[in-house]
Amino acid sequence: METIEAIRSRRSVREFTDEDVSDKAVEEIMDAGRWAPSGLNNQAWRFIVVRIPETKEALSKLTNYGSIIKNAPVSIAVFLDSNQMYDRTKDILSIGACIQNMLLAQHSLGLGGVWLGEILKKKERVNEILQAPDFYELMAVIAIGHPVKKVRVSERKQLGELVFREKFEGCW
Ligand SMILES: Cc1cc2nc3c(=O)[nH]c(=O)nc-3n(C[C@H](O)[C@H](O)[C@H](O)COP(=O)(O)O)c2cc1C
Q1: What number does the ligand 1 atom closest to the CA of 68 have?
Q2: pLDDT digit string, tens, across residues 22-44
Q3: What secondary structure, in 3-state letters, does the chain show?
Q4: pLDDT tens sequence across 60-110
């Protein structure tokens, strides 16, 4: 899939079939993540892959979007390793790039997934359940599976609402 086509056609997928996702695909997705750019090439992202139903069940209780985690064959918790942090803003931005790479990779593999952020309100509990050390700070959980086939639409603001030419208030 062409990169721009992948960027444009990726949609958040929240309903999955019963089909499993192979370890190879999960590895490929994380491999795409680790090739994201990062400030000073710091690569402060860390991943915990969750497949066991009891663990998914425990995580699902921490978010309004729990049914997505429960129904996805695999979820990946993405952390910032704060022991390896050099600049909080830049490290977190880099992890955003990493997560987007992962979403695009799963889309290119014909899989579907969604970036779950609402669960961050219970991030300490996530660490307890996954036995992650305190210096791992949860950035997101990505739920991944084979998408239920349906049309998914999403809107974006027009460039004209977002961009100025040369100076602020300069009309695009
Ligand atoms: C930081 C962040 C947090 C998000 N948190 C959630 C979430 O908790 N639950 C959810 O269903 N979707 C979540 N999303 C997905 C967005 O709702 C989705 O990307 C947005 O509506 C645009 O739709 P699209 O991804 O299909 O283009 C999150 C996305 C981002 C980037």
Answers
A1: 11
A2: 999 999 999 999 999 999 999 99
A3: CCHHHHHHHCCCCCCECCCCCCHHHHHHHHHHHHCCCCHHHCCCEEEEEECCHHHHHHHHCCCCCHHHHHHCCEEEEEEEEHHHCCCHHHHHHHHHHHHHHHHHHHHHCCCEEEEECHHHHHHHHHHHHHCCCCCEEEEEEEEEECECCCCCCCCCCCHHHCCCCCCCCCCC
A4: 999 999 999 999 999 999 999 999 999 999 999 999 999 999 999 999 999
- The CATH-assigned architecture of domain 3-161 is 3-Layer(aba) Sandwich (3.40)
Atom 15 in ligand 1: residue holding the nearest Cα: 115
Calculate how far, in angstroms, residue 13's C-alpha sits from the geometric centre of ligand 1.
10
Q: Residue 166 Cα, ligand 1 centroid: separation in angstroms?
A: 31
Domain boundaries of the chain, sorted by first residue: 3-161
Report the nearest-CA residue for atom 31 of ligand 1.
115
